[in-house]
Amino acid sequence: MFCLKIWSRFGAFRDPLTITQNLSFPIPPKTTVGGMLAAVLGIDYSDYFNDPEYFNFSYSLIMTRPIRKKSFAQNYVADYTKGSEIKFNAIADYGKKQNKYKALVEKQTFLEEKKEPTKAEERFLSTAGDKIQTAKTVVDKSMDKCAQIMGKGFRSPKPIFRELLMDPEYLIFIKDFKYEKQIISKLKNHETSFSFYMGNSEFPANYGFIHHTCKKIKSDTRHSFTAKGTDIQFEADKKYTTVFMATRSCGQREYRNYQHIVICDNPILMKKETPVYCMDCREGQFHCEFI
Hints:
By secondary structure, this protein is α+β, with helices and mostly antiparallel strands. The protein is built from 5 helices and 14 strands. The protein has 2 domains: about 1-75 and about 160-290, Alpha-Beta Plaits, CATH 3.30.70; about 85-150. The longest helix is centred in the middle third of the chain and has 32 residues, at about 120-150. Pfam families: Cas_Cas5d.
């Protein structure tokens, strides 16, 4: 087991179930944490997504700062990458036709200067003029089509509703991670192979390795979250948030094994005492549930 502290000026953990709006989870889901660990180790997402053992770890999380969100509308120029494949294909098609036309002209010029062409070459020369003219017509049409496609402008700006986390900071405890020995060494030396960010590449993040001790106890308190929503003794002066998050990713960013998780920035009182991990570190003592 190991612990790291992560923080950033901004963050966003997009809910993959949202379509028209970029809504953010208040905490990094297990799938995002897995991506952060992979960034430290230098594992490409296509590799760990297709590793059936990678997400077998469990994690717990402590919010060391209250969750603050900012919602706003941001005007985007219509996606300039949309239709790029059509443009690239048009350019490639024009290039192929142009090369074919040039090859015919060069072959005709070469054979006309040849003193003793073969019968096959003479047959080619007899029809070369028509072939070159046809190829030139095809090139001109392809060029017109390419110019038409490339000349299309951008559509009007499109407002996108976004939700950002302000000054997010978390303690993350990891248990039974496949590459635990390798990553602890890198975390202690503050090394990372890929860019480390808070859910979105716009928001670079920092991290630090946290020394801690842990022991199993029985407690009726949970810090930050629990997956046992029906066992909570809800209190009127506390604010609870329920999220539905994936705990595993696979294939082409396909999310699996969703869980309902109740989050609270104050200690969560449970109806009865149950086994829990008691974590002691410089940030405090926490009763953590792993998922």
